[in-house]
């Protein structure tokens, strides 16, 4: 089979036709009944054949048996998704399907008509391909309508993630891909682990990671072959961080159990992160003290500083409070590099968000409260951090949604 066809299979994840030499009765037999829909043996055989071709594995009865359970589960989930989309009257337009066709044709560097003819000449039904594209687009539309509005990320969450990135500045960055299988019912833990182990064995047999991720992973990264990208320690569950510490680039982990389920992680590469330069715009409230201030004077200044700190909700509050304090040291300190500040001040302000006040600190001139008005971080991509947090939230909400669909379904598996 030409490489272009294999690429198309991986990119589109569509059904590949199988030999029709098997008896018609066997092909049409139900492998599972999902509410009122049937998953036929033909559906199962097509999907198995798809996986074997797209992952580059050598076909064998043993391989098909290892893949059977997870393939059937995936087909059942697809039926549940399609049924929910139908219930919500979610439909995909012909224009959307046409765009998807054109995108896939461009990926394979040929006109749409030539691409379809090439598929058909290699035994791939155009109708099966169209149905698979429609199913994928329908599920994406369902997620956009029902799940994405509940997966919003707050500014506090973004700031928290940025603080973790800063705390690990200069540590090892790891470029990883993932396959994630959720455990939504503790009673299925052993079953899901078995599925994860079978996927791991296929990977050890040189199956293509991206193809298996697209087919089986329940993470939001599945459509892009499971690629997570560059991450630091602290951005992943602790169990995964621990496993990565013991891995070398190119290695794939055995299934890792976390609170949410089982993860298979591919450590693609690693490098040291550069410590980015941080520039802060600061304002200060200074409660001045004489050089020989008494303990009582220091206690009084500290109490006034703590009281003033509770009144700070933004950088603009400092100007009015500075007039009340009346100290010539209060007000704007301008912009300065974090590394140019004394160590005690660095420690006080390095983790602050914009508009957040520091704890009162003793300085030679008195008791100071500092507020970060603006921060410029070289090396921190705020947009990418927000996108990753959104994907993580989307994955969690999508898994909850899928779990509820499964719990409400009447499923009868017959193989």
Q: Quick check: average pLDDT?
A: 83
Beginning-to-end CA distance, first to last residue: 31 Å
State the helical fraction: 40-55%
| Name of the top-level CATH class of the largest domain | Mainly Alpha
Strand tally is 11
CATH topology of the largest domain: Triger factor/SurA peptide-binding fold
Spatial order of strands in the largest sheet: 4-3-6-5
In CATH, the homologous superfamily of the largest domain goes by the name Porin chaperone SurA, peptide-binding domain
Instruction: Please state the structural category.
Output: alpha+beta
Order of helices and strands: HHEEHHHHHHEHHEHEEEHHEHEEHE
Characteristic key phrases:
415 residues, alpha+beta, Triger factor/SurA peptide-binding fold, Chitinase A, domain 3, four-stranded antiparallel sheet, 11 strands, 18% strand
Topology of this structure?
Blueprint: H1 3-12, H2 24-28, E1 30-34, E2 37-40, H3 41-55, H4 61-87, H5 94-107, H6 112-121, H7 126-146, H8 155-167, E3 172-182, H9 189-204, H10 209-216, E4 227-231, H11 238-245, E5 256-257, E6 261-272, E7 278-288, H12 295-310, H13 317-325, E8 331-337, H14 343-349, E9 361-363, E10 366-377, H15 382-408, E11 411-413
Antiparallel strand pairs: 1-2, 1-11, 3-4, 3-6, 5-6, 7-8, 7-10, 9-10
Describe this structure in words.
By secondary structure, this protein is of the alpha+beta class. The protein folds into three domains: 3-146, Porin chaperone SurA, peptide-binding domain (Triger factor/SurA peptide-binding fold); 167-275 and 380-411, Chitinase A, domain 3 (Roll), CATH 3.10.50; 278-377, Roll (Chitinase A, domain 3), CATH 3.10.50.40. It has 15 helices and eleven strands. The chain has helices spanning 3-12, 24-28, 41-55, 61-87, 94-107, 112-121, 126-146, 155-167, 189-204, 209-216, 238-245, 295-310, 317-325, 343-349, 382-408, and strands at 30-34, 37-40, 172-182, 227-231, 256-257, 261-272, 278-288, 331-337, 361-363, 366-377, 411-413. A four-stranded antiparallel sheet has the order 4-3-6-5, with helices on both faces. It has a four-stranded antiparallel sheet with strand order 8-7-10-9. α4 crosses α7 (126-146) and α5 (94-107) crosses α7. The radius of gyration is 28 Å and the shape is elongated.
């Amino acid at each position: 089979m030409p490489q272009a066809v294999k690429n198309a299979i991986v990119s589109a994840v569509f059904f590949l036709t199988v030999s029709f030499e098997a008896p018609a009765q066997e092909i049409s037999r139900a492998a599972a009944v999902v509410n009122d829909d049937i998953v036929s043996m033909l559906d199962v055989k097509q999907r198995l054949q798809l996986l074997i071709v797209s992952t580059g594995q050598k076909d064998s009865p043993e391989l098909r048996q290892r893949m059977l359970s997870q393939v059937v589960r995936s087909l059942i989930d697809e039926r549940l998704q399609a049924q929910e989309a139908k219930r919500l009257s979610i439909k995909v337009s012909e224009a959307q399907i046409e765009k998807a066709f054109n995108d896939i044709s461009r990926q394979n560097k040929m006109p749409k008509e030539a691409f379809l003819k090439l598929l058909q000449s290699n035994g791939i039904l155009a109708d099966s391909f169209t149905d698979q594209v429609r199913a994928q687009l329908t599920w994406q539309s369902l997620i956009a309508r029902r799940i994405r509005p509940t997966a919003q990320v707050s500014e506090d969450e973004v700031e928290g993630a940025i603080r973790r990135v800063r705390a690990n500045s200069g540590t090892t960055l790891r470029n990883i891909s993932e396959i994630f299988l959720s455990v939504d019912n503790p009673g299925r833990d052993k079953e899901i682990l078995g599925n994860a182990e079978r996927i791991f064995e296929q990977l050890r047999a040189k199956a293509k990671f991206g193809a298996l991720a697209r087919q089986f992973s329940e993470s939001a990264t599945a459509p892009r072959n499971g690629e997570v990208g560059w991450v630091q320690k602290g951005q992943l569950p602790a169990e995964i961080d621990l496993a990565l510490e013991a891995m070398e680039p190119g290695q794939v982990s055995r299934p890792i159990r976390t609170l949410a389920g089982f993860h298979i992680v591919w450590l693609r590469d690693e490098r040291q992160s550069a410590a980015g330069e941080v520039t802060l715009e600061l304002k200060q409230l200074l409660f001045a003290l004489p050089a020989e201030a008494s303990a009582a004077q220091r206690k009084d200044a500290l109490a006034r500083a703590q009281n003033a700190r509770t009144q700070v909700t933004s950088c603009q509050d400092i100007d009015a409070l500075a007039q009340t304090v009346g100290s010539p040291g209060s007000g704007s300190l301008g912009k300065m590099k974090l590394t140019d500040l004394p160590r005690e001040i660095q420690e006080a302000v390095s983790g602050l968000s914009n508009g957040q006040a520091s704890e009162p600190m003793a300085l030679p001139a008195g008791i100071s409260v500092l507020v970060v008005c603006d921060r410029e971080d070289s090396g921190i991509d705020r947009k990418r951090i927000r996108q990753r947090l959104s994907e993580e939230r989307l994955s969690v909400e999508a898994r909850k949604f899928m779990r509820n669909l499964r719990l409400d379904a009447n499923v009868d598996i017959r193989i």
